[in-house]
Amino acid sequence: MVNKFTFKRRHIYFGIYINNKQIFLIKEKEGIIGQLPESESSNIHPVQLKSFLKGIYSPFYISHLIVPSNLFPEPVYKQNFEELCYHFGINFVHFLEPLVLAGIGTDLQSKHDILFIGNFENGIAEIGLVAFNKLLYSQKIPYGQILNIAIIHHLINQHKIIIEKNTAKKIWQKVGTFTNARLQVTVSGYTLNTDEQTTLVTSEEITPILKNIFELIINECKTQMDLIPFIIDKSGYLLKTDAFNNKLPNLGLKSKKEIKENIFKTGLFFTGTECNIHDLDNFMHEKLNIPVQCVKQPEECINKGLKFIMDNQKLLVVK
Prior knowledge:
The structure is a single chain. The chain is α/β, with parallel strands linked by helices. It has 2 domains: 13-96, ATPase, nucleotide binding domain (Nucleotidyltransferase, domain 5, 2-Layer Sandwich); 110-298, Nucleotidyltransferase, domain 5. The protein is 40% helix and 23% strand. It has 10 helices and 12 strands. The strands form 3 sheets. The protein has a 5-stranded mixed beta sheet with strand order 3-2-1-4-5, sandwiched between helices. Helix 4 (143-158) crosses helix 5. It is globular.
């Protein structure tokens, strides 16, 4: 078979793309060119990539690889990944923040000076402020792990069965709701005598647990809302540096008060595969008293942002 890619020593951009726990390699202007084996989570271990790169490396001269930083559950994986890429001759590895990619992918960043945004992925909620493709501030809340443990304890106490973490996750994804909707799911577990048993779990049981744990996210949002002037000062946003001016030359200088008012007016935007819990946006709106909305196709925002960056490479800063 004739290889359709020519080997040229020029800058070629590749990105790593995730969809439903499948990890793909995409090439600028051409789309998906390869796929890593499906795994249990949307994380990359360096060993996975090693054989993958060996298989696809020969036809290409990869000079830039763009990677969402949330692919790496441990910092050491990120370091090993970077070393592995350099070993294969990839000159630049760009780790981009998920919130930045999500903001670009929603196309909201082009309409607002600063985005107040939250991304829900793999049981972690990252809440932060993004301006002109730069992360000003963010914090991560591991709500999924806390929620799983709380549900496991609930089933032990109320249903007298022991379930696995994946089953606990299935429960809050299926019947988790912030409304009075009556939902139910049947799950399997083991009794204290190790006998297999099934039980019916309802949303009436899970909703109080969900609301209690999501108070952690609400408190973080409130803290950031109070800290907006300080975050703006620390980030140098009002200094109108070249990095900002080059992206939005028509930006008028605004006071911290005006910026805060604009953020409160536009509200909080949610992205990610796990932000579509029933009525989450209305629940958060009632608690925060600002507009809250889940964007369209929230599970695709980071990937859309990645593709946009690959086609607009001037937005990357080569270190």
